[in-house]
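In the design runs reported in the main text, the only information available to the sequence generator was the tokenized backbone. The following block is the verbatim input for one such run; it is reproduced so that readers can re-run the procedure and compare outputs position by position.
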């Protein structure tokens, strides 16, 4: 069974890397949709359904956390699994590591 995924990241290169990672891992990908921020992702979800969302934490316009909060308020999309992906060097959500 192929899974439809949505990759949400403001970096086009990171979206390409994530897409290639899925392909190389043998994960069966159906449609692979892409968005540059959380708001674009929500707009895409108005017309498309996906099985999984991979989202960057820090993005302009709408970040990953705000996108998740919006998804949780929407009965149609609240059950979609979301994996947060970030290249931040600090601790959890920018907190400094001890």
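Verbatim output:
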């Amino acid at each position: 069974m192929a899974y439809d995924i949505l990759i949400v990241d403001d970096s086009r290169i990171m979206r390409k890397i994530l897409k290639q990672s899925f392909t190389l891992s043998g994960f069966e990908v159906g449609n692979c949709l892409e968005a540059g921020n959380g708001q674009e992702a929500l707009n895409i979800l108005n017309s498309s359904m996906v099985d999984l969302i991979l989202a960057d934490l820090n993005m302009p316009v709408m970040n990953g956390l705000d996108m998740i909060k919006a998804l949780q308020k929407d009965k149609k999309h609240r059950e979609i699994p979301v994996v947060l992906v970030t290249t931040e060097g600090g601790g959890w959500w920018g907190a400094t590591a001890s």
